[in-house]
Structures are given as structure tokens and as C-alpha cells.
Amino acid sequence: MLNQIPLEHILLLSAVLFSLGILAVITKRHAVVVLMGIELIFNAANLNLVAFSRHDPQLMQGQLFSLFVIIIAAAEAAVALAIVLRVYQHFNTANLNQIVTSED
Amino acid sequence: MLFYFFAAVAILSGAYMVLTRNLLYAGFALLLTLLSVAAIYVLLFADFVAVTQLMVYVGGVLVLILFGIMLSSRVHDKSVMSENVNKGWGITISLLTLIGLCYTIWQTKFASLPWLQAASTDMLGAQKSTVQGIGIKLMTDFVLPFEIASLLLLIALIGAAYIATDKQEV
């Protein structure tokens, strides 16, 4: 095999990306950056699916599943950004802490 | 090796996305991460998933995120910056997650798993393009999730357009 990447290395890369996504979701307080962290978590999960699908060339269930994950991520991003825009117009801020602590 | 270069780029730009306080820099760091992940998909013989990643994520989601940054931030004053909170808890939880995942991956002996051993003999079948196989699978075994995904995209399109409409002026 010309290009045999060990499975463990791909899984470790995806674990690092997943932890970075969790760090972004917890520590950031702008709603759009929280969405970017969620996209990073989606990519880490997709990397796992594609890595295991490499050992399943006939069925390709992992690649098909990652395609559906990408579709759902796109729909989620569109709806979430529309909600962020409405929240920004209503509260005049996209900072999650200020939104939670504000009255009205 | 090419995989380690793209993995390093993905991890470094992901870390920069988390560490930087400028929202636009975070968006462009996310762009670099998504491109590296698409390159890794190509190295993993998933060419159609890589092209979909490029078209949907880099072409669609990232443009949406940049629009969201520009429309929900006052660029002229300092509010394009995003402060970090919960730093201790965030670093603790993500480090614990990383250590747990790495420990699990290190403990699992993937080479001795029976289904991986049985499948590794068919690796040569993955050399050709996966587009035809994915098309056939989408129209036979996965036709119900495919149709439901199209319905979901239609619902998301209508819902996002309805939510983002300014209702006072209509």
C-alpha cells in the first residue's frame, strides 16, 4: 500500500479537534464563535466516520453517514445564524452573557 | 508525509481559532482547518466527501459565518473582539475529554479487531473513485434518508428565511 496512514493517528487528530471544539464552545462568549466550535466538533466526528469507512470499501456506510452529517450541519448553521441575527436585532448584542443577564 | 502536514495545519489553525480574540481571524482560521480536513479526506480515499466538504463547508457555511460576524458585530468599535470566560472550566473539561479519548484510542488494539482484519484485504478496491458507488448507494439502500435530507434542507431554507425577515417593515 502506497499511502497507509495508521488508524490511531487519524483518531488522535480527530480527538484533538473535538477537544478544541469543546474549548471554543465553553470559553467563547460570542454566539457565532460558539457555532464555529460546533462546526469543529462536526468535522472531528466526520473524520472518524471517513477513517473507519476506509476499511469498508464495498459498503461505504461511513462516507454516506458523513455526507448526511454535512447536510445536517449546513441546515443547522443556516437556521442558527438566522436566529443569531434576530437576537442581535432584539438585544443589540450577540454576547451570550449579556443576553442571559439582560431583562426583557 | 502529507497526512502529518495537513494534520499539523488543522490542529494549529484550530488552536488559533480558539485562542484568538478577533472574530474575523477566528473565521479565517476555521477556513484553514476545513481545507486541511478536506485534504485529509482525499488522503483517506473519500474524494466525494472531500468535494462535498469544499462546496458545503468552505463555500456555504463559512460564508454564512462571515456574514453572521459582519452583521452581528459593530466593526468600528471594539466589539468585533470576543472575550473569553470560564477559562478554567473550559480548559479542564476539554483536557479531560482529550485525555480520555487518547487513553481509549491507545488502549484499543485496532489491528486485532476481527472486522478490520477481514476488511483490510479488500483495500485495493478503494483505489478507484467512490462517486459511482456513493450514487448507487444513495439511490438504493439510503434513498429514505436521502429524501428526508432534502425535506430537511427545504424546511431549514424556509425557516431561516422566515426567521431572518424583518417583520416590522414588511
Give a description of the structure.
Chain A is mainly alpha-helical. Chain A is about 80% helix and about 0% strand. Chain A contains four helices and no strands. Chain A is elongated and about 55 Å long. The mean pLDDT of chain A is about 85. Chain B has about 170 residues and is mainly α. Chain B has a domain at about 1-85: Up-down Bundle (Four Helix Bundle (Hemerythrin (Met), subunit A)). Chain B has helices at about 1-20, 25-45, 45-70, 85-105, 115-120, 130-140, 145-165. The radius of gyration of chain B is 21 Å and the shape is globular. Chains A and B meet through helix 1, helix 2 and helix 3 of A and helix 1, helix 2, helix 3, helix 4 and helix 5 of B. Chain A: NDH-1 is composed of 14 different subunits. Subunits NuoA, H, J, K, L, M, N constitute the membrane sector of the complex. Chain A: Its EC number is 7.1.1.-.
CATH architecture of chain A: Orthogonal Bundle
Work out the number of β strands of chain B.
Answer: 0
Q: Beta-strand percentage of chain B?
A: under 5%
- And the CATH topology of chain A? Helix Hairpins
Biggest sheet overview of chain B: none
Strand share of the residues of chain A?
A: under 5%
Helix content of chain A: over 70%
Principal-axis shape of chain B equals globular
Uncertain runs of chain B with pLDDT below 50, 5 residues or more? none
Pattern of helices and strands of chain A: HHHH
Whole-number total of structural domains of chain A: 1
Round the Cα radius of gyration of chain B to an integer and report it.
21 Å
Task: Determine the N-to-C terminus distance of chain B.
Answer: 57 Å
User: Sheet bearing the most strands of chain A, described?
Assistant: none
**What structural category characterises the helix and strand content of chain A?**
mainly alpha
